[in-house]
């Protein structure tokens, strides 16, 4: 409901040449997707076993996508000529979006390594898959998705280790050594295959080894520009999609926002502030009433980090935000009553 006023504002602020329907649909489809997912998942009871199955079903298409990239991406020696994000190395798709999906796959595989690998063979399989996905994610040269995946893994491990029993903690530490080894191997392979460009990319350098001035590759300028829009129209905002429309008018470049936070503030004004307060603090309030869910902060971190570097270009952050609102709890053991003597006779 809080998104609706910006549509009426946009009807008066968008330029004459802008396609009103497609522009509004483009910027509001992500938030609407998040809202519907959140309403469906809100406080819905689910067991840890069911959550593991959900994560597995999310992982399978990511593995299929990774296989597609391996088969259809051109030879890396032909396409890796600079340290910029590379859509060719991502299989022809947007490098930022592919890196976000593969970063999510890295997180899910890490969860499976620590929770869903009953035998060494299963753990070894998950390690190999982690190396493969990490390797392709690094070679997209889109850092946001990889860093987000690693951040979620770190948060998950901290929360899981704190709640684990002493015996389980020892198993976590032993698996952690193998896990770090797998990530290190993926990095070494990526650096070797890219001719050292991967190292320069994450060191914020160009192909010649010269450090770049802006580590955010232009995102800071867009962020500041949208905050200026919020200051100019703090109550009703500048209207949905007006931030992109303004850049077309002023610089002849329709650069879309990479940051959903600043775009929401600019286009929705005070309503955007209320939206962000609800999205941030309502899950934390739920967490205060149920501390069993060791996935919670990792899910919330994936949503928040992704919308800050890739906005809502893919549905993944919306879906993962909804998972953070699930009421995850241990399954209650079924009560088995002894049969009565009459029935046994």
TrEMBL record:
Limits of the O-antigen ligase-related domain: 129-277
InterPro entries xref list: O-antigen_ligase-rel_domated, WaaL-like
Domain of life: Bacteria
Transmembrane segments: 25-42, 54-73, 93-115, 122-138, 144-161, 173-190, 265-281, 293-308
UniProt key word Transmembrane helix: yes
Keyword Transmembrane helix: yes
GO molecular function list: ligase activity
Keywords (A to Z) from UniProt: Ligase, Membrane, Transmembrane, Transmembrane helix
Membrane topology: Multi-pass membrane protein
Residue runs in coiled coils: none
Major localisation: membrane
Localization (cell): Membrane
Record-given protein name: O-antigen ligase family protein
Species whose genome carries this gene: Gelidibacter pelagius
């Amino acid at each position: 409901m809080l998104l609706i006023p910006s549509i009426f504002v946009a009807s008066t602020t968008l330029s004459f040449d802008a396609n009103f329907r497609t522009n509004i649909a483009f910027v509001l489809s992500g938030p609407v997707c998040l809202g519907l997912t959140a309403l469906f998942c809100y406080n819905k009871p689910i067991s840890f076993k069911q959550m593991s199955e959900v994560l597995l079903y999310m992982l399978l298409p990511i593995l299929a996508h990774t296989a597609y990239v391996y088969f259809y991406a051109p030879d890396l020696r032909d396409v890796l000529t600079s340290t910029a994000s590379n859509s060719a190395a991502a299989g022809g798709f947007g490098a930022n979006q592919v890196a976000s999906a593969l970063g999510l796959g890295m997180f899910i595989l890490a969860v499976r390594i620590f929770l869903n690998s009953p035998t060494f063979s299963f753990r070894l399989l998950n390690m190999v898959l982690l190396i493969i996905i990490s390797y392709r994610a690094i070679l997209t040269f889109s850092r946001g998705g990889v860093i987000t995946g690693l951040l979620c893994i770190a948060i998950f491990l901290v929360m899981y280790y704190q709640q684990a029993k002493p015996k389980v903690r020892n198993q976590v530490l032993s698996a952690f050594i193998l896990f770090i080894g797998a990530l290190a191997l993926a990095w070494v392979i990526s650096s070797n295959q890219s001719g050292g460009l991967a190292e320069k990319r994450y060191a914020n350098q160009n192909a010649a080894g010269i450090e770049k001035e802006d580590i955010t590759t232009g995102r800071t300028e867009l962020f500041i520009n949208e905050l200026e829009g919020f200051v100019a129209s703090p109550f009703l905002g500048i209207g949905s999609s007006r931030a992109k429309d303004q850049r077309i008018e002023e610089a002849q470049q329709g650069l879309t926002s990479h940051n959903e936070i600043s775009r929401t503030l600019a286009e929705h004004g005070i309503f955007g502030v209320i939206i962000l307060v609800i999205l941030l603090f309502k899950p934390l309030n739920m967490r205060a009433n149920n501390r069993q869910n060791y996935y919670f902060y990792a899910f919330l971190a994936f949503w928040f980090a992704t919308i800050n570097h890739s906005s809502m270009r893919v549905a993944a952050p919306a879906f993962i935000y909804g998972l953070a609102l699930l009421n995850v709890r241990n399954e209650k053991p079924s009560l088995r009553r002894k049969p009565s003597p009459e029935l046994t006779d």
